[in-house]
């Protein structure tokens, strides 16, 4: 009778090693493919926002404001795009409110995104909103609702969260967004939200004709992932703050005032810098962040892009075209 021959121990170990090698090659490839799909969905979110902004402009004659405010416009601040006296060339003023500064009223606070809801196929939600009432006093179920187009699938910090005041008290519950409108290059979002050189400020009504730098070279909206800093899609909660998310992949933890809930800027840091603060742009994608431009195009910008190029892209009318 002939004996049945099976695998030897060495053969079995070789097969296991080969399978392990194949898995080691396959798993990263699958992860990269999933991330590419998520990045594509994020870009599609921004394209939908671009179409909504174009339709809003066609209907109202201008882009929507960064957020709504029912008070008077502030007087213009000093030119924060120039180096402060005595500083070395190229140094800019940081957007740090003075000691003891209390955020002024910002109500009602409804954001550019909320104003675009009818053009994002969400007219029923838009019709539920009383735009004369502050965000913080509205139906909590409304602002706690998840808006798919407002959240990047790579943003693992997205979800409902508690907005906290400067005194660390609970101000409201809301659902996050992964995107912020561009206030400009530098500028004091915290203390002077009416004055920026980008496309969106408090109560702004910028026309496409005002973009003399060229719509294809001007940022409109970019990624600011909730994994980095949580902000509500609904707009600005006047008593609230924007804080670095605990566990965010950055070296600092910072608290910014309410206007930064709707707005971000290009300041002293580049995209995805480990030193970013909550009014900066920061993505859930490795090494890049998706941006919507004023012409409706969506492009990924590398975290290694030159900072001066970013400053040129963030402004609307500084004659600083990017070559």
Topology:
Layout lengths: L8 H52 L6 E3 L38 E4 H4 L7 H6 L11 H4 L16 E5 L5 E6 L3 E7 L33 E5 L17 E3 L11 E3 L5 E4 L21 E6 L4 E5 L4 H8 L9
Parallel strand pairs: 5-9
Antiparallel strand pairs: 1-2, 3-4, 5-6, 6-10, 7-8, 10-11
Rg from Cα: 23 Å
Helix content: 10-25%
How does the helix and strand content classify structurally? Answer: alpha+beta
Order of helices and strands: HEEHHHEEEEEEEEEH
Biggest β-sheet strands, sense, barrel: 5 strands, mixed
Number of extended strands: 11
The largest sheet has its strands arranged as 9-5-6-10-11
Low-pLDDT runs of 5+ residues are: 83-89
Total separate domains = 1
Shape: globular
- Count the helices. How many? 5
Strand residue content: 15-25%
Give the overall pLDDT as a whole number. 88
Distance, first to last CA: 83 Å
Explain this structure.
The model is unreliable at 83-89 (pLDDT under 50). This protein is 23% helix and 16% strand. The N and C termini lie far apart (83 Å). The chain has one domain (12-74, 92-314). It is built from five helices and eleven strands; from the N terminus they run αββαααβββββββββα. The radius of gyration is 23 Å and the shape is globular. By secondary structure, the protein is of the alpha+beta class. It has helices at 9-60, 112-115, 123-128, 140-143, 307-314; strands at residues 67-69, 108-111, 160-164, 170-175, 179-185, 219-223, 241-243, 255-257, 263-266, 288-293, 298-302. Strands 9-5-6-10-11 form a five-stranded mixed β-sheet. The relative contact order is 0.17.
